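User: Before I run my own analysis I want an independent prediction to cross-check against. Here's the chain; please return only the structure tokens and, at the end, one sentence I can use as a sanity check.
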Amino acid sequence: MKRNIPQEILPLKALQEFTAARIGLGRVGTSIPLKQALEFKLAHAHARDAVYSELDINSLTDLLKLFGLPVLHLQSRVGYREQYLQRPDMGRRLNKESIDLLQQGYYVETDIAVIIVDGLSATAVNKNSPELLRVLIPQLTAAGFKLAPISLVEQGRVAIGDDIGHGLKAKLSLILIGERPGLSSADSLGVYLTYGPKPGLTDEARNCVSNIRPGGLSYAEATKKIFYLISEAFKRKSSGVMLKDNAGLLES
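Assistant: Structure tokens:
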């Protein structure tokens, strides 16, 4: 027997193909149907798991070696995951061992430092950063950008890229980080770029391309946006609020 759909739900059913948001779920009495209720609980469990997931260091290191660049393993000042969640400030700075590693490197000036950070979803980084980098890094090198050693960072926040980019003497830092999991996506990757990275910068100095994943922004489209922003950042020698994504706008 076909389930009757309440009349007030019908206008929302057509919108479901355009969004992963939970709309037009229907109802049973005063509650939502059992199937949708269980799906909600499963999504919540996936989000919690993503927050406590860990970087697959070995697999990521093997992938990054294919690009012919040194790989640095770095760590924030956070000692354990609960501390990471309670003390965002400690996730924004490198610990002493990582600072010493950068200071001992005697790095020459480069254009871009690619920095991979677990953030709030290492699951997103493990799943999406390999595919994105396979498209992005060849495009950057073909355009003549000189890349610094690639950094793999555990227990990090976005701002940790300021310390790393500055320590590697890079003109621009490019941070790939797991975004805060939601109830429709626990595997969303964000990419932040900062021109002239140095300790003490705040978020108005950065540009972000977010929701990079198979169910969101595709790797090809993300690469296109990131490459455009990087090119404009070097042209203007700035990023953040001084740099807008005007790609695709019609010329007057």
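Sanity check: The two ends are 58 Å apart (CA to CA).
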